[in-house]
Structures are given as C-alpha cells and as structure tokens.
Design brief:
The protein has 388 residues and is α/β, with parallel strands linked by helices. The protein has one domain: 3-Layer(aba) Sandwich (Rossmann fold), CATH 3.40.50. The protein is 34% helix and 13% strand. The protein is built from nine helices and twelve strands. An eight-stranded mixed sheet has the order 7-6-5-8-9-10-11-12, with helices on both faces. A two-stranded antiparallel ribbon has the order 1-2. The protein starts with a strand and ends with a helix.
Length: 388
C-alpha cells in the first residue's frame, strides 16, 4: 500500500500561463539517478517557496491472494499533465473509469483540477491532483520531489499540457525567461520527463511508457501542416540563444515572433524529443516512447485565445466539410489507448487514427524525423534546463 499522496499548491509565476490546467515542508533533495541524468550535470534545485500539504488517499498496490500467496497486478499509475480540461481531462477520465489506473492529474490550478475531476464523475480512489506549473523549472523540480516522496510508482508519463497563443503579437515568457509556448510545451516537459525517467525504469509494471502529445500542425507533410505559418526550426539559433527576446530571438529559428508558429515549432520539438528518447533509452530500459495526434478537437480550450469567429466557424468546418472533427471524449479514449493498449507497445512511433477510429503508425515530416536535429534539440535543451 502506498503511504500517502502529496498534494501541493504553490505560488504562481508572474506570467499568465492559464491553459489546460496550467492556469497553464521543505523536502530533502531527491537523489536523481545516473539514468535520469545520464551524461549530464544537474543544476541546483530550489523549493521556490512552494508550500506542501499532505492528504491521505488510498491508492492501489500489489496485493497477495489469501489462498495461494501469489501476487496480483496492482492498478497502473499514470501522470497526465494538463489534466484539468480538454484532452488531458478526457484521458484522465477514460483511464480512471476502467478501474485499472490511478491518475495523477498534474496541473497548475489545483482547485480547477479537483472541480473538473468531480464534474467528470471520477472516483476519488482513482485520481490524485498534484501541483505542476510547467512555466517554472523550479515548479517542475518541486513536483518531482513531491511525487517521489509520495511513494507512488510511475508506470506511464503523459506529456499533454500545452499553451497556444495564435493571435499574440508579442511573446510572453516563462518564469525562467523562455518564450512561453516552447518553454511550457517543450522545455518544461523535457525536464519533467528526464527527471522522472528513472522512476519509470524502476517500475515493475508490464508495459512502461512515456508519451508526448504531438500535432498534425507541426508536420509539413500534411495539408494542415502547410497552412501558414509553417513549422520551421531552422538552424536552432533562437533556441541556442535561450528564446529570451533580449540577446536572442524568442523564436527557435531566430526569426520574428509569430504566436501560431511558436506553437507549431514546439510540437516539432515534442516529436523530435520522443524519437531521441527512443534512440537513447529504449534498448537499455525497455520503456516504450511514443507520440500521437489524436485528431482535430476543434472545440477544445486549446483555441481559447483565438478570435471568436474562428472558435465559432472552425468546429463547423471540421464537422461538415472536412469530416475530421473528433470530440474530446473520443480523443481522450485514443490517448488512453496509447497509454494502456497491449497492441500499441512499439517504441519510437507517432500514432494516428483513421476515420474508422483505427490506430496506425503515421509518418512524420522530414524535419520532425531528422535524427541530427533531434540530437541538437536535445543537447541545447539540456543546457537550458540545467541538465548539462
């Protein structure tokens, strides 16, 4: 039986990063293992003034049969970022409803996530809300501390949360000075995944997985991916410069800031990162690394910052013209499938679904599957988040 779950509600960064739940106790420093920090040096970890509260929550464990003493499989334990709304909430609900998973809802707005879980009818025994602000690297490190001290296992990590500001004329920035979209969507998740990798590796669950949500808009080998502005990481000069908008461009390719492009670029980074995880760690650990595009969720809160006309017309266009509309409920089931389906254990794959809702291995664009660019994004990102 797990000892208890740790619930943390910490101070927010000065920037408004409200999105998908990222609205958006001094603990001893965890001993991050050599696997998580392979070939790297970790920056000092600060508690950042975050206060911790503990709440006893019964969670599943490996139990023994009273008759034969054999082990029975416990519930799986999965972290889902951005689980207070949209795709993240739909995924958390789909997994919790099976009774086979305990979902850690990693969200910036603690109360919003609790209300969302209750409204979705999720059984309290099947979820725990923990504070995570991906716009702050200190918050990411604090989340890892709190999770590790909760004594919960980690079987699957789902990097889902995202920020999308298509109409922004000027960039916003994270607490660490990175352009907000790439800072949250890529760098925050990159640090989170690296620090939790050893926890995944320690799990005895039959299929351990690390899943990073991608997007069709970051793939220029699709019609949607060719809608301007197109994703283009260029030579990564902006990323290498820190994306701070001062002595470096806020855009990865070093160009002029465009909100919609910043999101698409971050999704390319997500898909490249998944493949680099696969190349570096799959053979050694057996962990499945995957990405996916769950379909066009045209009425999601992802578009909350878009103009009203777009928010009204886009769902209608997807429903009645392209026929590509996918509900949040259906998309959540698809992501839950990548979390738990025994047939989707192949590593290094970008999953998609056809009109019959059948999954298949999709092809990534040339840039989103470039191994050299993936290596460079990885190495630069290590430096930016303090792992090198």
């Amino acid at each position: 039986m797990f000892s208890r779950n740790v619930v943390v509600q910490g101070k927010q960064s000065s920037k408004d990063t409200s999105f998908l739940g990222i609205s958006l106790s001094d603990h001893p420093k965890p001993d991050f293992s050599p696997l998580a920090l392979k070939g790297c040096r970790q920056r000092g970890v600060s508690a950042g003034g975050v206060r911790a509260q503990t709440a006893a929550v019964i969670t599943p464990a490996v139990t023994r049969s009273p008759t034969d003493g054999k082990k029975t499989l416990r519930k799986g334990s999965v972290i889902v970022t951005g689980a207070s709304s949209g795709l993240g909430l739909a995924t958390a609900k789909a997994l919790a409803e099976t009774g086979k998973w305990h979902v850690i809802m990693a969200c910036r707005d603690f109360l919003k996530a609790e209300r969302a879980a209750k409204s979705a009818g999720m059984n309290k025994e099947n979820y725990t809300v923990m504070h995570l602000d991906l716009a702050s690297l200190d918050s990411v490190r604090q989340f890892v501390r709190n999770f590790q001290q909760s004594n919960m296992p980690l079987d699957v990590l789902v990097c889902n949360a995202a920020v999308y500001q298509p109409n922004a004329r000027q960039p916003s920035f994270t607490a660490d000075g990175f352009e907000l979209g790439v800072g949250v969507n890529h760098l925050g998740h990159f640090l989170l995944a690296r620090l939790l990798l050893d926890d995944l590796n320690k799990s005895e669950y039959p299929s351990r997985r690390l899943i990073i949500v991608g997007s069709i808009t970051g793939n220029t080998n699709t019609v949607a991916g060719n809608v301007p502005p197109k994703a283009d990481l260029g030579d990564l000069r902006g990323l290498a410069g820190g994306l701070n908008g001062l002595n470096s461009s806020a855009m990865i390719n070093g160009g002029t800031f465009i909100g919609a492009k910043a999101y698409k670029d971050s999704k390319v980074c997500n898909m490249l990162t998944m493949q680099e995880f696969h190349r570096r760690y799959h053979e050694e650990t057996g962990i499945t690394f995957a990405s996916l595009y769950p379909g066009c969720i045209a009425d999601t809160q992802l578009f909350r910052h878009h103009i009203p006309e777009f928010r009204f017309l886009f769902p209608l266009f997807q429903k009645y013209v392209t026929k590509g509309f996918v509900s949040e409920e259906e998309s959540g089931k698809r992501l839950a499938q990548v979390v738990s389906d025994p047939s989707l254990t192949k590593s290094g794959v970008y999953w998609s679904w056809n009109k019959n809702s059948a999954s298949f291995e999709n092809q990534l664009s040339q840039e989103a599957s470039d191994p050299e660019k993936a290596r460079r994004v990885w190495e630069i990102s290590e430096k930016l988040v303090g792992l090198a």
